[in-house]
Amino acid sequence: MRDEREAISINKYISNSGFCSRREADQYIEEARVEINDNIALATDKVYLGDAVYVDGERIKLKQNAQQIYIAFHKPVGITSTTDLTDRSNIISFINHPKRIFPIGRLDKDSSGLILLTSDGDIVNKILRAGNEHEKEYIVTVDKPITPDFVKKMSSGVYILGERTKPCTVKQEGPKRFRIILTQGLNRQIRRMCEALGYKVVTLLRTRIMGITLANIPVGKWRNLSFTEMEDLRKQLKHSVKTEEASKRSGQPKNTKYKR
């Protein structure tokens, strides 16, 4: 009989290998692209010592004591935040990092700005879960002049996707430009909020995730996170959770996609 103490869930195994995030591993499993010992893997399957795991025919192995990678990337418009190499606009091929990394969350293809990538599967859900309330900051331009009523409604909450968004910070910075700080991550949230109020987003730039900013990163370029940034990130994540507990805090469904 196999020892359950040596078992690991299939999505966690793939994530811990550095191949992709656990969320994307779930997608690969759902699409029947994952095999365990030549059998198509199910979401409930576990991996035991000695098992062979494949994604699209590629053997996946856990890395032992590998140094984790954390980078900040200035994503251009037109690049897709996916590890799926069949998508010609995928972020992994664009960056072409020598080590295997994957994005933490997503940034819409039509949006630009800061996105973090890592080889550390454990950190991903702590950052993404809405209940942890980690800030993300954006500069947005819209198609017509902004009114005080627009700013008030955006900041107090807009009804989209069957729920009212959380109160947030909104500051007008020009006739058609505003800055917004969110702690939520509903699918295309800012665009949907604007559309609900009769506006259309023209450009959307993410400038900050928690304490990490886009400063001094040219479009299409990346840099490693500094020691200070990593220390600050770990402090902020110290009391964060990476399970459904965070979703319960926010009232957000488990399968909500994090995208702008």
How would you characterize the overall build of this protein?
By secondary structure, the protein is an alpha+beta fold. The chain has two domains: 4-60, Structural Genomics Hypothetical 15.5 Kd Protein In mrcA-pckA Intergenic Region, Chain A (Roll), CATH 3.10.290; 67-260, 2-Layer Sandwich (Pseudouridine synthase). Helices cover 25% and strands 26% of the residues. The chain has helices at 10-16, 22-30, 91-95, 121-128, 148-156, 189-196, 227-237, 244-250; strands at 8-9, 34-36, 39-40, 46-47, 53-55, 58-60, 70-75, 102-103, 112-118, 136-142, 159-160, 163-164, 169-174, 177-182, 201-209, 212-213, 222-224. A hairpin with an 8-residue loop joins β8 (102-103) and β9 (112-118). The radius of gyration is 19 Å and the shape is elongated.
Q: Brief overview, please?
A:
The protein has 260 residues and is of the alpha+beta class. It has helices at residues 10-16, 22-30, 91-95, 121-128, 148-156, 189-196, 227-237, 244-250, and strands at residues 8-9, 34-36, 39-40, 46-47, 53-55, 58-60, 70-75, 102-103, 112-118, 136-142, 159-160, 163-164, 169-174, 177-182, 201-209, 212-213, 222-224.
Give the key terms:
single chain, 260 residues, alpha+beta, Structural Genomics Hypothetical 15.5 Kd Protein In mrcA-pckA Intergenic Region, Chain A, Pseudouridine synthase, 2 domains, four-stranded antiparallel beta sheet, disordered C terminus
